[in-house]
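Ticket opened by: R.M.
Priority: normal
Category: complex prediction / small molecule

The reporter submitted a protein together with zinc ion and asked that the result be attached to this ticket for the collaborator who will pick it up next week. Submitted input follows.
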Amino acid sequence: MARYGRPSQRGDYLSPVVLPFPLRVAWAPKTLVRSLRCHHLETGRLAAIFADILAHYGPARIRELGIDLFGGCFSYRRMALHNAWSRHAWGIAIDLDPDRNGLRVDHTRAQFARPEYAAMIDAFEAHGWLSLGRRLDLDWMHFEAGHVMPVRPAATTPVRPAPPGVERRPGSFGF
Ligand SMILES: [Zn+2]
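Result attached by the on-call engineer:
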């Protein structure tokens, strides 16, 4: 992760990405997100991913499928199942539609495992952002830059509480 530097609360390494279509905050869907902050090395790729998604689906289908339900990008925190920094801490991960793609939900129930979402996952992967759902069959909400870590969390691993003072957004609680 040397490429991205050290994560910090302030996130000096973040830059805004203007999205080609607005996202809806998953837990407050009347709130629209027209730009978000991610690591400055990934702004171009993230913009390209969402442009590809828009080109493939169009705005109405995006909304109908819930692809626009935003669950968080930058979040200064460690992973829920591992004592390592989450890629959200660098702003190189994004969660979408968290309610229907939970951390421990596998392909039999995850919304994004359905075939109509394959083109969305392809768009992420075409620009080097991988789907934990497709790769590990967990946390289908989560897409991240780079190579997915070979993690197989044990079902008995306790979920670590967030350190005091660290914001925990609803929906962004996994990797
Ligand atoms: Zn995530």
